[in-house]
Design goal:
Distance between the termini: 156 Å
Number of helices: 24
Order of helices and strands: HHHHHHHHHHHHHHHHHHHHHHHH
CATH topology of one domain: Serine Threonine Protein Phosphatase 5, Tetratricopeptide repeat
Structural class: mainly alpha
Shape: elongated
CATH class of one domain: Mainly Alpha
Helix content: over 70%
Length: 440
């Protein structure tokens, strides 16, 4: 016969309390324990690179914790990592309903996600809403001004920047954004002086270095742009904006294979960024892989149906295949969504000129000049069209003079200059009788 060891006396009150709990209390405790286990399991799955499974488990945790935002925020992160932006946004919106006091912080996360996926206009809308309610800190104000500049909203960007400039006129980060707006508006000399001054004072200022790299690329000295970008470290070096800039620099240097590798890695890191996917599609097109390019275009348009670059690359593929009318329609569609989209403008004016639509070609070329993105060839082409159509001789002479500085003996440029001078309005002779005064 085996005798059981007596229970410790300190356990008796605990056992008594458990024995006295009603079934509802026990059920609540079990539910809470299960929710915590699911939450922890979801975190571990997310940390171990299993976002789809994590999203499912965290959804179960959210159902067990209907008054908590944490599982929903983690679930949103899991959805984004698995490439399901729609479900991620829905999870964030549910979190805002659960706890409205967290709405400003959640909306900041939403804006950040929109930006990472290339939805800049949506990011701007979210940040503008927070700004108008005076719920944005300085860093987010600078971010908003930066995004507005990228979207060509220069005056709005200056307005966003006003508060910081008024309160702290010498704020370094605000100065970087100011230089960015100046550069985007075409005031390159002022922008360059400001950038150089900032980097002389603070060589480690990554935002200024990124901006100067963009300036160097725009000015045709891509080697200097590459040097500036090579100095970026950590998270700054792998932001979508920086990866895009690196790709553009390498492309301008003719290193297409490196662009392919860079953008393939970038798309792996940001699987829902339609702009990066479409850029990779364009590289595949340049490397002679049209089928792969079109597959990527379809993927970009699934991620973002209104992706301007996705529609543009589809047009490029159609143009390469000789279907110029379909290409022209898609270029027009891209420009309808973003009238300042430089790649589409650069192709559109050529197609319009080929089909004899000179007035439409002029419109596209004028937009390129307006956004300070017209090449020397395009400035000369616009001047030649002005001469042909008897339009704006003064502006045409300014454009062709710039081209002649680079290539003084170019016969076509000289012919355009001559034609434009002929088109200048002649000075009117004074009306009425001519009075000849003689000596007294």
């Amino acid at each position: 016969m085996h005798l059981k060891a007596p229970r410790p006396l300190w356990l008796l009150p605990l056992l008594l309390s458990l024995g006295c709990k009603d079934p509802d209390t026990v059920a609540v405790q079990n539910r809470h324990q299960t929710a915590q286990e699911k939450l922890e399991q979801g975190r571990n799955l997310l940390a171990n690179g299993q976002p789809e499974l994590a999203a499912r488990v965290l959804g179960e945790a959210a159902g067990l914790m209907p008054d908590k935002t944490e599982p929903l925020l983690l679930q949103a992160d899991a959805h984004w990592r698995s490439g399901n932006s729609g479900a991620a946004i829905l999870a964030l919106k549910q979190a805002m309903v659960v706890n409205p006091t967290e709405t400003p912080d959640i909306k900041r996360k939403l804006a950040e996600r929109y930006e990472q996926d290339g939805h800049l206009r949506q990011a701007i809308d979210v940040l503008m809403e927070l700004r108008d309610k005076e719920l944005l800190g300085d860093l987010d104000i600078l971010r908003l001004a930066h995004l507005q500049t990228l979207e060509g909203q220069h005056e709005a960007a200056f307005k966003t920047l006003e508060r910081i400039q008024r309160e702290r006129p010498d704020d370094v980060d605000a100065k970087v954004v100011e230089a960015e707006i100046l550069l985007a508006k075409g005031e390159e000399v002022l922008a360059a002086k400001l950038m150089d001054r900032l980097l002389t004072e603070q060589p480690a200022l990554s935002t200024a270095r990124i901006l100067r790299a963009r300036y160097f690329l725009q000015s045709g000295v891509s080697e200097y742009a590459e040097q500036d970008l090579a100095q970026l470290q950590g998270e700054e070096a792998v932001k979508p904006e920086v990866l895009t800039l690196k790709a553009r620099v390498l492309e301008s240097l003719g290193r297409h294979a490196e662009v392919d590798t860079l953008l393939t890695d970038a798309v792996t890191r940001y699987p829902q960024n339609a702009d990066l996917i479409a850029r990779l599609a364009e590289v595949k097109l340049q490397l002679g892989h049209p089928d792969e390019a079109l597959t990527l275009v379809e993927r970009a348009l699934r991620a973002q149906p209104d992706s301007v670059r996705g529609v543009y690359v589809r047009a490029r593929a159609q143009e390469q295949q000789g279907d110029l009318e379909k290409a022209r329609v898609d270029y027009a569609k891209a420009l309808s969504a973003n009238p300042r989209f430089v790649p589409a403008l650069t192709r559109m004016w050529r197609l319009e000129q080929q089909r004899g639509a000179d007035a439409s070609a002029v419109t596209s070329l004028e937009r390129l000049v307006e956004v300070n993105q017209a090449s020397l060839e395009e400035k000369a082409a616009l001047a030649a069209l002005y001469a042909k159509l008897l339009l704006k001789p003064d502006q045409g002479l300014t454009l062709i003079a710039e081209a002649l500085k680079k290539d003084p003996g170019n016969p076509e440029y000289l012919d355009t200059q001559k034609a434009l001078r002929k088109n200048l309005p002649r000075k009117k002779r004074p009306s009425g009788p001519t009075i000849i005064r003689g000596r007294r």
